[in-house]
Every structure is written in structure tokens, then in C-alpha cells.
Amino acid sequence: xxxxxxxxxxxxxxxxxxxxxxxxxxxxxxxxxxxxxxxxxxxxxxxxxxxxxxxxxxxxxxxxxxxxxxxxxxxxxxxxxxxxxxxxxxxxxxxxxxxxxxxxxxxxxxxxxxxxxxxxxxxxxxxxxxxxxxxxxxxxxxxxxxxxxxxxxxxxxxxxxxxxxxxxxxxxxxxxxxxxxxxxxxxxxxxxxxxxxxxxxxxxxxxxxxxxxxxxxxxxxxxxxxxxxxxxxxxxxxxxxxxxxxxxxxxxxxxxxxxxxxxxxxxxxxxxxxxxxxxxxxxxxxxxxxxxxxxxxxxxxxxxxxxxxxxxxxxxxxxxxxxxxxxxxxxxxxxxxxxxxxxxxxxxxxxxxxxxxxxxxxxxxxxxxxxxxxxxxxxxxxxxxxxxxxx
Length: 391
What we know:
Layout: H1 4-42, H2 45-69, H3 79-97, H4 105-109, H5 125-148, H6 155-173, H7 176-179, E1 185-186, E2 191-192, E3 195-196, H8 200-226, H9 228-238, H10 240-245, H11 250-276, E4 278-279, H12 286-299, H13 305-324, H14 329-343, H15 347-364
Antiparallel strand pairs: 1-4, 2-3
Helix pairs in contact: 1-8, 2-8, 2-11, 2-12, 2-13, 3-5, 3-11, 5-11, 8-9, 8-11, 12-13, 12-15, 13-14
């Protein structure tokens, strides 16, 4: 029988956790309403389209934070999964725009008279919706299995993901007859739901869809990292050998979380493609995949919110600086990264938590243990030891 002294702290912690969940849900809903209702009133169509792209990039940043911040897997090749999701949706749009029996025009330039077999399933919209995240997930799962089963980790894992990125980039670049090679697939003039993708109405539709998808992916990552599965990911990140000696197989967990991260990147790629108007092998450029990691570092690893904030702020700053200072804006971007690495090693969210976290927790009536740790770990649970129990 547990003593009253032990029961009361447990009840207090549970009540505080419930309050924290309700506050977080209220904040997420409020931000969603601001993005959907208020932002379109103050931003021009061009700026709103840019914001939609940045929010799509924030989705892929969530996937990277899931594997890097919580699991310790630094991937430098997420452009692969981003591109696969984008190409899947672009292929459907290409076929959906044409009259029945016709094939995309670029095939005629290279002497192709029949639709290739792997294009044919993309005539179906339900298949395309599933393919957007399943194809990147399968590719990520296979790549992860081949790497993790050999216990490759650390910098060697990062090098292998970047090497895979180079392979995919060169492959897609050379497939002129199959996917239009370096020219890519244009989506701005395609037709979706009876309207041209580039019209203001469809841009607004995809913007709202991106906001909803971002919230859904945040909820998924939050759910994955807040329970036992999340604690296992943190344990793998902090001491994988100890996890293995405890009787668990880290390989299965790492393959699964890498596949989930790939699926999230595929969804982001599809949403980014329809808002940017084109998908090409350039999204598999090495620099772009490295930028994805930088967004997470700027916002704060193992925070999820930091990944979103970092992606939006960095891309917004790059857009504004490149417009005002086209010749020297890269120096500003480099200075930003240097400041974060040297002065804010835990990112913007990590700095905010350490500076204002206790004050905010007191104002909201949260227990001190409810303030998330910068490294993504959780407070140790209350353990009922014999000295606090009654017979």
C-alpha cells in the first residue's frame, strides 16, 4: 500500500501534466487560427505563397528533429525523401491535366510514345496520396536497414546518407526520357480539382492544407516522443550500447523512426512542390539537405517547436535579406549561423527555456519538472521505494 506522502506528489504531477497538455493544445490551435484566418488578411498573395513554402519546409525540419534531436541520427540526405514526395504528386498532376490517352509533352522530345509503366499508377489520386509518404518511407526504411544492421552510426552514417543523396541526384538528373531530367516537372500550370494550380484560389487551398499538415505532423512527432517510444529514442541517442545490453534491439527502433522521418519529408516535398510550381533534381542538392539540418540547429534540437521556428525564421530571413542586399545577403546568413553555434548552442528555444522557462512555468502553475529539458529527455518518474511504502 502506497503512503499518502507518495500519492500526493504523483497526483500533483499528473494534474500539472494535464494542464500543460491543455495549454499546449490551446497554443497550437491559436497559432493555426492566426495562420489561416489573420495572415491572409495582412499578406499579399506572393508573401502568403512564400509563407506556405516555409511552412512546408518546417514539416521536413520536424522529421529531421525526430531522428537527429531525439535519436542522434544526423542525416545529410533528406533531400531524397523530399524529392520523392514531390515527384509523386507532380507526376499525378501531369497526368491529370492531359486528356485521356495523351502523355506529357516532354516524352515526345525524346522519342517516347507510350507512358512508362511506373507512371501509370499515378493516374489514380488515392494511389498518389498513399505514394507521397509510403515511397519515401520504404526507401528510407531500406536504406536505414542496410546501414543500421551493420551498426554504422555517427559521422559514418552522415557520410553514407550524403553519398546516397549524390547517387539519387545523378540518377534523377540523367533520366531525361523518364522524368524530364534536369528540367524537372512543372506543376504551376497543372490542373487539380478542376482548377489550375497556380491560381489564387488553389494557392490558398494548398496553403491551408500545409498548415493542417504541419499541425498533424507536429502532433505525430509529439506523440512519438512523449511516451515509452520517445524515451527509447533518447536512450539510443545517449547510450546505444547500454540499450542493447538491456535486451532491446536499437536497429528496429532506428529503422522505424528513420522511415517515419522519410515519410514526413515526402509529405513536405509534395506540399512544397505545388506551391513552388516545379520539382527538379535541384532539391537533392547537397547544400539544400545541409540547410535542413541548420534550421533545426538554429531553432533548437529535440524541441520540435524549435524545428518549426528555425525553418520559418531562417528561410524568411534569407528571403528578405536577398531582396534588400542581393550582393551580400550570404554574409548575413553565415553570421546568423555563427552566432547560433557560438552563443546559442541549444538554439533559440533552448535559450528561451533556460532564460524564461521557470518564470513561465510559475505563471502558468506548472510544476518545475514539467519544463522540458533542452536535450529532449523527461524528468525521472516517481519511484515507490520500500522506505516510502507501508505494508
